[in-house]
Amino acid sequence: MKEPLSRRGRVRALTFLAAAFVVLCGIAINLAAQNLHYRRATALSYARAFSQLTDSVDKLDAALEKIVYVTSTNMISALCTEIYGEALTAQQAIGELPYGNVELEQTAAFVAKVGDYAKALSKSAARQGGYSGDELENVKQLSQAASTLSGQLDELEAQLNDGTLELDDVAAVEERLSQLTEDGDVLAGSSYESVESDFPELPTLIYDGPFSEHLQSREAAMLKDEDTLTMEEAREKAADLLELEAEALSDGREVNGELPCYAFAYTQDGEDCTISVTKQGGYLLSLSSQRAVGAETLTAEEAVEKAQAFLAAHGMDDMAESYYIDRGNRLTVNFAAQQDDVICYPDLVKVEVAMDTGEIVGFEAAGYLMNHTSRSSLQPWVSGADAQEQVSGELSVLSRRLALIPTEGENEVLCWEFKCENQDGRRYIVYINAKTGEEQQILILLEDENGTLTL
């Protein structure tokens, strides 16, 4: 039987408990103070980001209003540069807001489109000496939309400043986003609701850029006249390509997107592999093997020959090697189609070769299937000699050839391609437009023992 604590023991225990309580209270108060400090700092950061967004959209609005009335290409270029810069700043500010790209989805899309359109417009105006009629109309409509958006953001910022409204923190936004409606809409309560719900109507932008509306309706050039296969037909096609029995492939799954396809899994030499064939036509779209690759026994040249033989076996025999890169004993070789001795870079195929056995362990042909077709005319208007005169005198030309290159809007431009070198031995590729004789693009070549990259 335990003896009761003495009076001194009880006093000591109470003292320890009291001290522990005081320490715990101190810790709790300190944590609360730190949490309050963090919340204030976070709120200040959000307020600063929103203020930056409002300021950038205001400046973007002003620049768009001015650009409607300018006529010189120099002023158009200067204002386009300003618009592009403010659009980038606005995008950065949206990214600093809690889930800004979700709750300010239309605003984020608008500033991205405006910035990209301004970049394309600057090039177009310099080439044409001003706007086309459609471009001027687009600029007017973008200006009106920017003015409406600017006013909405200014009004919202005023409400934030006078305390009528508060920006949500991450936790509040996460809770709201977890309660999406059946249609995928965010429930009421977002600070940005008034901006997004009354977003101004935008013009249809058809231009040479990644946000152009024409890209949404693109058809794959290789597939547009092909029949659509059933899952089982595609499975048989994939098995034929692999020289396997159809039963060796899984039942597969449908994959939608720009190039709808059927994807199948299979096992080869104990390793998991996948193959995708297009729904239309049953063309080989991609191939991937996860097997570990052993030590290299092939040279890069031998691996390139293996890749070329694979392409020829699949009906792609007029392909030119562009460049390659060695990644951990897997050599990825980039090929492009050729027509009339012109290399067509939009028709891109990537083949991955295992450097131990020469087995094809990767394949991707999206660019080829989207773009490959017989071009009606690939005759230059500008001679190679005349085009070479446009290359900088600081560069020595090593070689030249005709090349079809893609633009940002996935159009095509026939160019003279010049491989060049500067005094330090650094290499570049300069593209001169074969129709206009103007500089179209310049790339930096990064070459080492592992292959070549372009910047």
Features:
alpha+beta; 11 helices; 42% helix
Short note summarizing the structure:
The chain is of the alpha+beta class. It contains eleven helices and 13 strands. Strands 1, 2, 3, 4, 5, 6, 7, 8, 9, 10, 11, 12 and 13 form a 13-stranded mixed β-sheet that branches.
How would you describe the overall organization of this protein?
- This protein has 455 residues and is of the alpha+beta class.
- 42% of the residues lie in helices and 23% in strands.
- The chain has eleven helices and 13 strands.
- Strands 1, 2, 3, 4, 5, 6, 7, 8, 9, 10, 11, 12 and 13 form a 13-stranded mixed β-sheet that branches.
- A hairpin with a 5-residue loop joins strand 3 (271-278) and strand 4 (284-289).
- The longest helix has 61 residues, at 7-67.
- The chain is globular, with a radius of gyration of 31 Å.
